[in-house]
Amino acid sequence: MYDLKMLPLKLDQGQQEFVSLGFTASAPPRRASRSRSEDMLILSLSFKGDVQTASEIQKSWLDNLIQSFFKTGGSVTSAMRTLIETLNLTLMEKNLKSGRDAGPTTAAINLAAIHRRILYIAQSGFSHAFVLNQQGLAHFYDTSRSDRGLGFSRSPNIRYYQAEIGRGSYFFTTDSPPETWTEDAIFTGGYPSLDQLRRRLLNQAPQSFRMDLAQILPGEGNVQIQGPQIPAAIEGEDVKDEDSHVIPETLPEVTAEPQEDTLFDTREIKPESDSVEIVLPDTEDEAPEEDLVEAEISDSLKPEVLQEDFAHEAAFESHAEEDIEDAETIAEPQLAKSKKQEKMKKSSSKVIAERDQIRERSLKGLAAILSGWRSFREKVSTFFMDLISRWTPADSDGTPMLSRGTMLLVTVLIPLIVVAIGASVYFARGRSLQYESYFEQAQLSAAVALSSEDPNQSREAWHQSLAYLDQAESYKETDEITELREQARDALDQLDGAVRLAYQPAIIGSLYSEINITEIISYGPDLYMLDSTGGRVIHAERVSQGYEIDPDFVCAAGNYSGGRIEALVDMVSLPINNPFQAHILAVDALGNAAYCGPGQNPVIHTLPSMNGNFGEIKSIAYDINYLYVLLPASSTILVYRPTNGQYLDLPSSFFEGVDNTPNISTVEDLAVNGPSLYLLQNDGKLIDCTTSGLGANPVTCVNPVDYIDGRPGKEDLVFTMPESSYRGILYTSPPDPSISILDAINADIYRFSLRFRLYKRLRPEMGDFELESPVATAFTIGIDRIAFLAFGHQVFYAYVE
């Protein structure tokens, strides 16, 4: 678990204010879902438009959305997506009801979920998120600047990222980061404290500015809010921002605690209740609640109200369509432009008409349910009145006379019977109507995708169709869902030029859920897996049914022959003719190396350093007996030359004598091919550095390389890696030399030639196997053309054709 220190900051005319509205965090409640029981959530939310309405939405929904996250099982990204989609629909409905006069309310959100030792980030709207850890500064935002935020369409644009937390990190967000937020400026003098980071981030910040900052430290799941002293808030008085909006009463209670630094006062957020309660606005009359709901829905079914709602929704979507048309046709000739616009307008009109028909059918079905409910309620009332009149005595005017026991029994039984019958009606008819509504929307999105000539619009529509199919499947599983899902996936594969690999579990049995595989080595019939959580290497042997764990294999932190080694951070395979006959060489962050193999204890050797201060190792690579060590903190790559198969001599710097050294701090992984060194960055860009051996120009680098598409139908086109998080790079030697890169978010493997020509995109087909986390953590492709893919503690393999 981790502790969170929250620091919400706002500058108003250069003056700091404590404004925590829209910035909160939570530890898991007592009755959290099993998948969320050890997660923590950070939420940063900003609104534009009708701020008063947005404030009301936060008061009534924000806490419940957070609680719903912890009650949602499955993967972390699925729970984050559900939260964002729920908030988006709330804003969408508000905007449709308010019409054009009030103006739309939009929002930008940054969600950060701590799951094990990984920080998963979901972002929607134009906002910036940063993660600062010991390895450097990572910046996440919409590079296309096309995301209009929540509240505009029913399908929000959600981007997913992830970052390592390690021994501590900072997570901070803002809408407009200053230009001074660079790694060099923030890392001045080393990894900063919270107060140092606050001062550096506010340096040269604009006069009006908001920033949400969270410090993540190993701990026990405590959440604290830090900010300047505000006596009024501590004594219970209202605190207002510049728009005079009162901070909602539903914010978590805070308790002041003394700190060593008197500039801040620390307030610890107490764990919230594990119950989810939606607070509805008070009504002026005293009508029964069910009558008010029925009256509201009945009014919404009137023709004039329906017509107005449809007009509002059509107006919003027409604006979005016009923006898309303008962006797509700006560089085309005028005649082609007019023809394309006319065709797209006809297609849009057809789509809107179909959508209106779907919504009208749904509302008619809802009206039929309400009408049947009224009739059913009247019949039940009449039935019980007749029953009571038959079995009880009556007074002089014919009114039934009931004893206290009978009245108590009737009071208890009647609501139970009504609820049971009503639930049966809902499950019989309501769920069917929900299924039909979502499936028809999935069909509509598929029709949009088929009619679109723009590959990007078609891809987005197919993704939207799959999202609707997931919602429809939650109510009913049918063959038509399976058929449409396969059609959508085939279409996306064709658009992306992807080839499906049928993966199956590699490990016989299963690994513990706490294990996180971050490196895989295929060594003939042996499989070696690096567990970053335990800082150890796991060995498995191939048998007829898969790979069986070797319980006697030892390669972990401890004292062995040659010295002590700490938690392992990376490993490479070795040729079998090394002095220790070891299969792998594993290192810890301090520069200690362990030679490990089956049936033997590790042999420890400490790598020499140039200046005695080694720094933390992030990754290593091996090629022709040479060992390459990546040190991001010192922006250095050390090269060790072998001496009788061991590394006894001082290393040299790979970039020694090079003037324009690339930025090593952003490198995620590295691979070596003779004189070529490949450095992979988290955004998928690749740096290719080649040693020449010449004294005048020893190393030349191409930063970044230009990817060329070589897939059928896309030959010689410039290829750009999709926006995602890229985790590993692999060089495969002949007879099939290639460079492979792992897209962690989508679990796709991109295979390039040595001239960076993309010739294959390997996409996973998991079948009926359920993934606890969809983010891939490691991969490899062996010389036997078997691909291995890890998702945390789950490891799969497939044959590459």
Offer a quick outline of the entry.
The chain is α+β, with helices and mostly antiparallel strands. The chain is globular, with a radius of gyration of 31 Å.
List the helices and strands and how they pair.
Layout lengths: L1 E11 L2 E3 L5 E4 L13 E9 L2 H21 L4 H27 L3 E10 L2 E7 L3 E6 L2 E5 L18 E6 L4 E6 L8 H4 L7 H9 L6 E10 L4 E5 L3 H4 L21 E2 L7 E5 L19 H12 L2 H27 L4 H58 L12 H48 L3 H19 L5 H18 L1 E5 L1 E2 L11 E7 L2 E6 L4 E8 L2 E4 L8 E3 L2 E3 L2 E6 L10 E5 L3 E5 L6 E4 L12 E5 L2 E6 L4 E5 L11 E2 L13 E7 L2 E6 L4 E6 L7 E4 L4 E3 L7 E3 L6 E7 L5 E6 L4 E5 L4 E9 L12 E4 L4 E6 L2 E6 L2
Parallel strand pairs: 1-12, 15-40, 35-40
Antiparallel strand pairs: 1-2, 1-11, 3-4, 4-5, 5-6, 6-9, 7-8, 7-10, 10-11, 12-14, 13-14, 16-43, 17-18, 18-19, 19-20, 21-22, 23-24, 24-25, 25-26, 27-28, 28-29, 29-30, 31-32, 32-33, 33-34, 35-36, 37-38, 38-39, 39-40, 41-42, 42-43
Low-confidence regions: 229-337
CA(first)-CA(last) distance: 42 Å
Structural category: alpha+beta
Biggest sheet, open or closed, and with what strands and sense?
Answer: 9 strands, mixed
- Measured by DSSP, the beta-strand proportion falls in 25-35%
Q: Any idea what the radius of gyration is?
A: 31 Å
Please provide the count of β strands.
43
